[in-house]
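Q: What residues go here?
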């Protein structure tokens, strides 16, 4: 068995390549195990390729089941795994990268010429070609480092062989020099060696042609001519008798060619368009098989029948961009719609979008490459399919890569379970169809040869036909054909291709002009040439590569060092543009990561994660926060500390299930210690604020207060006035929530208001004031302030704070006897129930809503009992005390004294456990009223002895009403 990592991944048995798993992540796992050649912990593999909210261990197990039959043979178990580790054991197999390393254990300079010659055939391909996974940032970092190391080693082997055998075996040396050039097109030494060896072999015209190609390449890619050494080589060849052939003219623009073949598939799509509503059509096939072309045909049929057509697509580099495919499909202004609706819960947001789609009338939504759909987009597809069945949906997907994206896989499986999916699989074209396709693109070529060489693969067939038409008669692969077509480009058109490939998706003219510095007029002419040559195509108001495989071929022609420069320039150009809502942040983070700028990447990840929270995409926010933390760890100084704390805060708020909050809190504590030691008091204050929230949630009120005060003091040390104001507001909120020292809380809130001035985005300040006004008995002001706090908290994705505010409003209105208003606030919170985590806010407002309906004459005792049970389980004693008092009040009014007394006693116990003196006083006043109603006058004495100092106005009124 041979496993080849240098070039495209190949597993061959007896010289015959075996079919690889369709999942790219599974192939990446195989490459990683083969390259590392040692046992790997399962947890590390999961973090490398499947880190996320789904079950990474299950995904790893699935991939291993796909690899075992490929690697294992009778008598040779190569994939060895136990509960903790996985290892690929060679067991007689040859791994080219391992063999290459073994050939030069002490370095290339010390290796024998024979040893180098033995491994030279391994050095001709780009290492790990086609195994990029930009969304798996840990794996991507490993891959780029491993690829570069393997490339350097292969280049060193080839260069050493050329130097050692060039004089005595120039023909063999020329093969190595060409392989050297294949790996690094911009290496002057490789060009010089090739020209020198051609001259040595007496091939003067070939040497001059090689110089001319080098000259054009350097001028195009580097903006300069060859070096003096190369100039001297050319001079040594004498006067040039070689004149390079002019580049072939651009093909004239042609009308869209008719769809060849696919008669049955087109009919099936047309039937789906006219058939029963509520069925999603999914076109499945490998890259280049014609999915997009078939969807184009469906779009044309739909328009002929009077349907409006919306089109979007998944993009591999944007798997964490919430609603990316839908925003692209809906067009200009769509991002504003999703952002404006972010205060709704997901179901209501989806309902709004579904209603808007339905209102358009006859509508077809086409989403291509759903194997790269983000989680939010996939969920919306499923919702629209169920809630708006009259909206027709058609998708294109690569079946092998669906398994790499849990969100897309869940979508297809869910639709299949619902009986709401129709799958159309695409197979290669027949011989007759392939001949017709070849004739459509290159009349007169040998259609039988095209079919024999392509096997009926449409894109391969088209490229072969084009190659035959221009006189090329030999090729090794589709990629080689695409690379050859790209090689024909010259001038500005050729210069733009690497930039467009690095962008990774559709691009606007203005965007490409800003990145490259090329004036729009010149850029438009160059892109028009690319469009004529079928390299790119119009995609609405943007351009895109005619096929992803062309983009991939163009990207592969760019060396790794230059890729970094391209991505770095793209990232920095995008970062310099105004982006107040963080819409481009995910794109910036992607390019900054590939460009090797950890500071820009960490900052962009922070902005992107915050945006994901605002759009209620917590899983994507978590992924981006973790990616940002990885890059922040590479920084030094205050920026590293600040970013680490801010990213941990986002990660905490994104963990709605509270599965990792304890771990994140511990990491925050360590980060705060580092920030204190470095004198970064502002960063430490931000971390302390979040920890005080965690303490409050866990019931450690003393520590919450202490940390909040510490945050305030540190915020005053080195923060600007706005940051100081926010720190003071947070502390005021924390102290007010604890229900003690209200005067201190009011003083801090007043100081915060002075510092913040016109700044009106700090939710903590109105919420602190709402609690204070409620304590003082100004219910109307309290509700207005709490409502404003909820609004601001939603805008920043802090749903826990919005929950606190709605809970407060609901309780105030219930106590005032405004039942319908209380229910409205309860409904506002319940609409966001999925965002609230596992705290007590949801069961609390369910109790309040049940009490309000009881006030309206709609008692539902079972619902109230269930909500109380859930509230007890949530371990939220303050909320439990308030809820029990509300229930006991209603039971007392109904004459149910025994039940009222039991609930009031429980309320006293809960309030005392929470150290809430006002809630305890209200509960005791209820017990006194119950005792009076029962004729137990002696039970009133303890209430009369209560000290009203520090009690809320509501508690004082409750005592006064009894005493």
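A:
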């Amino acid at each position: 068995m041979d496993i080849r990592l240098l070039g495209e991944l190949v597993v061959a048995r007896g010289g015959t390549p075996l079919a690889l798993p369709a999942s790219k992540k599974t192939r990446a796992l195989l490459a990683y195990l083969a390259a590392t050649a040692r046992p790997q912990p399962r947890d590390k593999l999961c973090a490398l390729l499947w880190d996320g909210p789904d079950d990474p261990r299950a995904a790893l197990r699935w991939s291993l089941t796909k690899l075992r039959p490929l690697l294992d043979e009778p008598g040779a178990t190569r994939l060895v795994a136990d509960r903790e580790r996985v290892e690929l054991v060679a067991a007689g197999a040859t791994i080219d990268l391992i063999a290459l390393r073994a050939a030069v254990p002490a370095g290339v300079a010390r290796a024998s010429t024979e040893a180098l010659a033995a491994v030279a055939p391994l050095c001709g391909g780009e290492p790990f070609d086609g195994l990029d996974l930009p969304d798996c940032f840990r794996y991507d970092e490993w891959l780029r480092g491993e690829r570069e190391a393997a490339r350097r080693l292969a280049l060193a082997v080839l260069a050493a062989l050329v130097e050692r055998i060039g004089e005595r075996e120039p023909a063999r040396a020329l093969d190595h020099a060409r392989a050297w050039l294949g790996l690094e097109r911009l290496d002057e030494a490789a060009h010089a060696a090739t020209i020198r060896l051609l001259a040595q072999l007496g091939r003067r015209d070939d040497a001059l042609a090689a110089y001319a190609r080098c000259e054009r390449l350097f001028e195009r890619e580097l903006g300069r001519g060859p070096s003096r050494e190369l100039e001297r080589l050319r001079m040594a060849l004498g006067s040039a008798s070689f004149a390079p052939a002019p580049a072939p003219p651009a093909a004239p623009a042609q009308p869209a060619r008719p769809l060849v073949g696919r008669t049955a598939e087109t009919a099936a799509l047309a039937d789906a368009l006219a058939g029963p509503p509520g069925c999603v059509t999914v076109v499945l096939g490998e890259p280049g098989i014609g999915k997009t072309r078939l969807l184009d045909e469906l779009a044309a049929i739909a328009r002929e029948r009077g349907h409006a057509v919306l089109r979007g697509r998944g993009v591999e580099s944007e798997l964490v961009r919430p609603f990316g495919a839908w925003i692209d499909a809906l067009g200009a202004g769509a991002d504003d719609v999703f952002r404006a609706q972010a205060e709704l819960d997901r179901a209501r947001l989806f309902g709004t979008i579904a209603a808007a789609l339905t209102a358009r009338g006859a509508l077809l939504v086409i989403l291509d490459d759903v194997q790269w759909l983000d989680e939010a987009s996939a969920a919306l597809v499923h919702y629209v399919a169920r809630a708006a069945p009259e909206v027709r949906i058609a998708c294109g997907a690569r079946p092998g890569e669906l398994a790499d994206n849990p969100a897309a896989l869940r979508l297809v499986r869910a639709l299949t379970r619902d009986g709401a999916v129709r799958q159309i699989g695409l197979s290669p074209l027949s011989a007759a169809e392939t001949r017709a396709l070849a004739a459509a693109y290159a009349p007169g070529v040998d259609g039988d040869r095209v079919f024999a060489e392509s096997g009926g693969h449409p894109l391969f067939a088209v490229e072969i036909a084009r190659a035959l038409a221009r006189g090329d008669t030999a090729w090794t692969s589709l990629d080689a054909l695409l690379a050859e077509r790209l090689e024909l480009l010259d001038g500005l058109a050729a210069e733009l291709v690497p930039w467009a490939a690095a962008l990774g998706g559709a691009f606007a003219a203005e965007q490409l002009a800003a990145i490259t510095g090329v004036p729009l007029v010149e850029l438009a002419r160059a892109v028009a040439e690319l469009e004529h040559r079928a390299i790119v195509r119009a995609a609405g108001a943007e351009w895109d590569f005619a096929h992803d495989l062309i983009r991939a071929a163009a990207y592969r022609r760019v060396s790794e060092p230059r890729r970094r420069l391209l991505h770095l320039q793209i990232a920095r150009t995008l970062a310099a543009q105004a982006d107040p809502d963080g819409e481009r942040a995910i794109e910036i983070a992607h390019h900054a990561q590939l460009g090797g700028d950890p500071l820009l990447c960490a900052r962009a990840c922070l902005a992107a994660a915050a945006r994901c929270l605002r759009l209620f995409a917590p899983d994507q926010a978590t992924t981006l926060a973790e990616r940002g933390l990885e890059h922040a760890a590479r920084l030094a100084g205050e920026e590293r500390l600040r970013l680490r704390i801010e990213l941990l805060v986002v990660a905490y708020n994104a963990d709605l299930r509270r599965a990792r909050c304890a771990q994140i809190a511990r990491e925050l504590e360590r980060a705060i210690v580092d920030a204190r030691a470095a004198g970064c008091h502002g960063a430490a204050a931000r971390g302390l604020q979040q920890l005080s929230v965690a303490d409050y949630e866990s019931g450690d009120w003393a520590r919450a207060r202490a940390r909040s005060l510490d945050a305030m003091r540190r915020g005053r040390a080195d923060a600007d006035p706005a940051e100081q104001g926010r720190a003071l507001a947070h502390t005021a909120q924390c102290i007010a929530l604890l229900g003690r020292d209200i005067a201190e809380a009011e003083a801090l809130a007043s100081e915060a208001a002075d510092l913040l001035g016109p700044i009106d985005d700090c939710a903590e300040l109105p919420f602190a004031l709402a609690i204070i006004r409620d304590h003082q008995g100004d219910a109307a002001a309290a509700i207005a302030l709490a409502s404003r706090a909820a609004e601001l908290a939603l805008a920043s994705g802090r749903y826990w704070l919005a929950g606190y505010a709605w809970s407060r409003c609901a309780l105030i209105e219930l106590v005032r006897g405004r039942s319908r208003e209380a229910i409205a606030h309860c409904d506002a919170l319940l609409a966001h129930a999925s965002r609230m985590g596992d705290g007590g806010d949801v069961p609390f407002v369910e109790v309040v809503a049940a009490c309000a309906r009881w006030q309206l004459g709609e008692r539902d005792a079972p619902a109230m009992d269930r909500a109380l049970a859930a509230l007890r389980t949530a371990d939220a004693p303050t909320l439990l005390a308030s809820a029990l008092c509300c229930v006991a009040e209603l039971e007392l009014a109904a004459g149910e004294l025994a039940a009222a007394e039991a609930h009031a006693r429980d309320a006293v116990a809960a309030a005392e456990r929470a150290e809430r003196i006002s809630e305890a006083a209200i509960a005791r006043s209820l017990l006194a009223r119950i005792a009076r109603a029962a004729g137990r006058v002696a039970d009133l004495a303890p209430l009369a002895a209560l000290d009203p100092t520090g009690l809320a106005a509501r508690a004082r009124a409750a005592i006064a009403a009894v005493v």
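A: Context that may help when evaluating the design: The CA atoms of residues 827 and 849 lie 8 Å apart. The first strand starts at residue 2 and ends at 4.
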